[in-house]
Amino acid sequence: METIFDIYKDLYTKQSGGSLCERPEFSKIWNTYMMAKILRMNPETVSLALKVQILERAGFLPKDIYRFLYARLPQKFRAPFFKFVKRPKKETESKKSKNRNLDDEGYLII
User: Which of 4, 72, 95, 105 is most buried (most C-beta within 10 Å)?
Assistant: First the structure.
């Protein structure tokens, strides 16, 4: 288990038998906001995403939310595919200032 997407996959495929939340790295990887965001990408699980947010605000622990989702999501051969797109990183000011002194071929302009 390395990412939140591995937890998402396990919620559907049920390969861990519900014991994934007992692993020590679970608390480092779990993020309720990200799980709710992932669940909102699938029209079938939007209502579960809202319930997850309510459970978090009510003070439930991440392992309790995981068990709730584990019991509610249907078992499937594969987790539903969704396209998760990240924004490209913007150039920092230091990189821009370094590039200002170079010509088209990359030579330093004096």
Answer: 4
One-letter amino acid identity for 89?
K
Q: CA 58 to CA 68: how far, in whole Å?
A: 14
Q: What is the pLDDT of residues 47-101, one digit of tens each?
A: 999 999 999 999 999 999 999 998 988 877 666 666 666 667 666 555 555 556 7
pTM of the model: 0.68
Question: What gap in Å lies between CA 57 and CA 17, rounded to an integer?
Answer: 27
The residue to which tokens 């809202």 are assigned: 50
CA distance linking residue 95 with residue 98, whole number of Å:
5
